[in-house]
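Quick check before the chapter quiz. The format below is the same one you will see on the exam, so make sure you can read both the input and the output lines.
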Amino acid sequence: MDSKQLFRFFHSKFYLSNWLNEDGDLAQSEVEVKWHYCGVNEDFRTQFVSQTIDDTFTDDEIYLCISSGNSSLMHKSAVVDQIWKMLHKKEIGIMDQSFTKMIFFNSYSTFKIGIIRDFPESRPKPAGSLLKVAFHANSVDQSTYHVSEAVTKHFESFEKALHKDYGGNMEQLWIDLELVESHKSYPLRFQKRIGNPSSYTEFYSYNVGHYSVRPDFEKLRTLVSEEEICSYVFELLYQSTQILLDKQKKLDGFDASKFRLDFQNALKKTGYV
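Here is the expected output.
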C-alpha cells in the first residue's frame, strides 16, 4: 500500500476497533475507555510512550499513520520521534502488521489502545449458540402508551424462556409490537448482517430474523384492564410465530414447533393466556 491507501485503510480499521479500559479489558462504553496522557513538546513522555509501544506490538516494524502523504511502515525505534514531532499538529495512528492492534493519539496529548475487530459480511451460526430473542413495543403514541407499559414488563421472562438452541441458522429473533395505528407491519425477513448501534463492542449482529406484529386497533381501544390487554397481545404474539413454522425450511431447519411450545408455556405462566 502507498501512503494514501494506508491512511485510508487505517481510518477504516479505526472504526472497527474496540478500545481498552483501565484494566486492559474491552471497554463497554465510551466513558470506560482509558486515555493515557503522554505530554507534548518538551513535556513529551518519551520513555512511557516507547514502553507502551513495545508492550503493545511484537513486530519490529509497525505502521505509522499521520496523513495521506505521511503514512508508512516504520521501525518502532523511529516511531516515537515522529509522534513527538507531530503530536500537537495531527492525530496519529499506529497499527501492527497483522492489523489486530492499534494505538490512537489525539492532538490533546492523550492516547488509547485498541483491538481491531473483523466483522465479515456473513458468518455461519456458531455451534451450540443459543437463540437470543428480543421483544419490543417501542413504537407507541399517546393512545397506546399504556399498552406498551402493560406488556413490556413480561418481555424479559419470555426472552429468558426462549434462550435455547433451536437449531437452524438464526442467532437472533426480534419481534416488534407495532402500536402506532398509521404504521404498517412488515413480514419476517432474515438478514445475514445488520448494524448494531446499541452495542459499543459488537458493531454488527448476524443471522437475524425480524418481523413486526400489528394489533387490531379497534379491538385494542375496547380493552380496559391490564389483564385484557395482556391476554389479547400475548395471544397475538403467539399466533404471529406461525410465520416461523411457515418459513422453517428457509431458516435451515429451525425447530419452530419447539420454539412455539416453549413460548406458549412461558405465556401461560403469566396467567393471562
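If your answer matched, good. The chain has two domains: 3-116, 132-268.
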